[in-house]
Amino acid sequence: MSETRRRRTAVLLGRLSLPERNYVADALRTETVGGVLLLLAAVASLIWANTLHHSYEAASDFHFGPSVLGLHLSLAHWAADGLLAVFFFVAGVELKRELVAGELRTPSAAALPVIAALCGMAVPALVYTLVNGASGGSLRGWAVPTATDIAFALAVLAVIGTALPAALRAFLLTLAVVDDLFAILIIAVFFTSTIDFVALIGAAACLVLFWLLLRAGVHGWYVYVPLALVTWALMLNSGVHATIAGVAMGLMLRCTTRAGERQSPGERIEHLVRPLSAGLAVPLFALFSAGVTVSGHALGDVFGKPETLGVVAGLVVGKTVGVFGGTWFAARFTRAELNPDLKWPDVFAVSTLAGIGFTVSLLIGELAFDDDPLLTDEVKAAVLVGSVIAAVLAATLLKLRNNTYRRLYDNEERDEDGDGIPDIYEEDEPAYHLRMAEILERKAAEHRRLAQLARRNGGPDNI
Questions:
Q1: Whole-number Å distance between alpha carbons of 298 and 294
Q2: pTM listed for this prediction
Q3: Residues 6+ apart with CB under 8 A from 13
């Protein structure tokens, strides 16, 4: 291959820049902890619902809040519409940052995750539609298997002890960010039935005020938090799902740094809010959404009803085929070459991991079948079963290459000169090699000293 062609060929899943690598590592560290809490909350929810069912139902249906403001909601409703607004706020900030400073800032870089995410949502929806169209099931749940739960996926990686290379971790995170954007668009467009235009105009006015205050450089949580709560309440009463307010405010934050700034306001606020989202909001949502009665008959129904079978097939088959096919197509379309450290089976394994749809899938399941509580619970069970199957398949495939991933991960993290920057980012700098030469010379001098000491103490010169 000529040098000119080598320069023109893009590398698929190549090395991240140092700032992007640090951002991804920090974000995934928080999401991994949140994912473990999410798993614990899901297990606790299942145990609670199957041992003390009436208690679980009573707690989920417990209403509180001011009726005059339209906020007399059940605990489950507060979790779905209130706490998930925090989750989608973080998703909005993530997306804004990706668009202006991350992997999506240029069309060529954005092509891969956007195409992969779109295919990873379209194919599961198609699989669900085919299963239900052929069996006479309801088509209302087509959007349920379209979402990927990044926290759950990272929890699986933490449990199986797999350290993915940074490129694969960044791909999974960016894929989930784009996935969340399209999921919120699906909720806004397809799951809004009646609209209160007065409340909607009020919410829009609050969002405009939020934007103007940001542009004017106004600071203070005591300004933005009350405004955010009013915006959320108006959006909830408008009939549009309240989480739209969260993602809209997240997208308005500035995510580029100015002179004298170490972090942009968006990154700073995301750093503060992400632990609240991953550690509290999402686990509490799971606690009041994942509690379905599990029995042999119920599990049999998951594979016996077209709606639930469509969800399982969409998550396990549709997500894998969609994400992998979209990635392969993007590589062919952009004529990119896969990172030589990775292989296409690695992309396939991560695509299987994308089949873990939990938080947003549960939310869409509730919205799609809100008039049929029994079918809602069955669809939730299907989301759990499909996610577990996808997790087991992904864990098996990733374990096959675990030694390779560990070697690549250790090489990416190696910092022999102790300056806090991985050596892989400094190997083209003369200063790095001079520092390493000095370090090795000190080590060599110490070994010579120890050799002379051993010789004086009567040790043999040769072994």
A1: 6
A2: 0.81
A3: 167, 168, 171, 338, 339, 342, 347
